[in-house]
From TrEMBL, chains A, B:
Part of the FGAM synthase complex composed of 1 PurL, 1 PurQ and 2 PurS subunits. The lineage of its organism: Bacteria, Pseudomonadati, Pseudomonadota, Alphaproteobacteria, Acetobacterales. GO terms for biological process: 'de novo' IMP biosynthetic process. HAMAP family: PurS. This is Phosphoribosylformylglycinamidine synthase subunit PurS. The gene is purS.
Length: 79, 79
């Protein structure tokens, strides 16, 4: 079963990558971009077939490795 | 209106970041991980309020800057 972990910088945390993208978009002539935040998606292919167990395993992985919970928040979705 | 652009490496394209995560998860004792793919999410806060126009603008940004369409595929979602 597949799980997707979305990791985003928390609100209020400086996001230099997002800022760089925002400036680049402006430079390319895209107007009307107020804010850009850049995060990560990690797609996990798990052998676990029970949705509840797969989700809790993915959350555990996110907490221990994929996200830095001091500055990042994460969300797990099963696909 | 907010748009999210998901950028993933295309199937068949080598994903060293995903491989590194996979090995790290194994090292941490997580079993049952078959495959890991690592991608990006870019959250755009656009002034455009028309959903169709916002989506097409975000797709345009993805094609021109956010994704390298030779090796990456992208998907736009409005939030």
């Amino acid at each position: 079963m597949k799980a997707r972990v979305y990791v985003m910088p928390k609100a209020g945390v400086l996001d230099p990558q997002g800022k760089a993208i925002s400036h680049a978009l402006e430079g390319l002539g895209f107007a009307g971009v107020n804010d850009v935040r850049a995060g990560k998606v990690i797609e996990l292919d798990l052998t676990e077939t029970d949705p509840a167990k797969a989700k809790s395993a993915a959350e555990d992985m996110a907490r221990k490795l994929l996200a830095n919970t001091v500055i990042e928040s994460f969300r797990v979705e099963l696909a």
